[in-house]
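It is worth pausing here to work through a concrete case rather than discussing structure prediction in the abstract. The textbook approach is simple: state the sequence, then state the predicted structure, then interpret. We follow exactly that order.
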Amino acid sequence: MTSAHPPIGPSPFGHSQTIVQLYHELATHGFGAEDLRFLCRIHQHGVWLFAGQLRPSGRPFTCHTVGTASVVARHGGSLTEIAAALLHAAYEFGDSGSHVPSAGGRRRRDLIAVAGEQVEAIVNAFYQYRWPTLIANIPVMDEFVAKCSEAEKSALFLRLCNDIEQLPDLPFSDHEVRQRWSGHKACFIAIAESLGRLDLAQLYDEGLQSADEALGNIDVIEYPYVVSPASYTKRLSARLREFAFNRLGATGRRAGR
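Step two, the predicted structure:
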């Protein structure tokens, strides 16, 4: 199947950055109308979760999630993995009334309702398998990956794609962040080798080199990571009222038993 529209030119980041670009890209990979409608629903939920959030370069957070989905698709990811990529940061950075990281409660219920349990399982595993946990398993990475479920292996694949997508942001990040990323390299390569994804390891290495070369040519601007619109306080108040109502309602029911 090919797209009926003219192809979208490459973005400065080398992969799709908007949902329209991603639709065109996926259409050329043979994904159908029902697939794209499903991903549209997923993306809309992400727009709500990541509203007002930016990456270090100043681009909207949803450009990063779309970009991650694009990297996943270009490297043979399934529809479920592409959907999970659009929401991969839901539990760490998603705002469903609170910025406190969480993989449970309302955040999890909402994600399952929108995307289904298979997508949620990958997003949950992505949240659990963060770099400190993965780095601790470098000496036994082959055994670690072999014991992973399919959802966990998909989450590791997404972890690799996620970091590749973020590499162009690296020159805009502070020194501490860049040092931390350099420390990820050995773990990234170990995971890529265990998953049989040496192509991603090569991309990561090339991306790190490009980021280092770009560093001297960029004047870093300290963008805030969250920009709150004027209506945000109203939205927060609505969430607090909802929480209070549910909490008081639950307390009342318990007291009445």
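Step three, interpretation. Residues 1-12, 249-257 have pLDDT under 50 and may be disordered. The chain has 13 helices and no strands.
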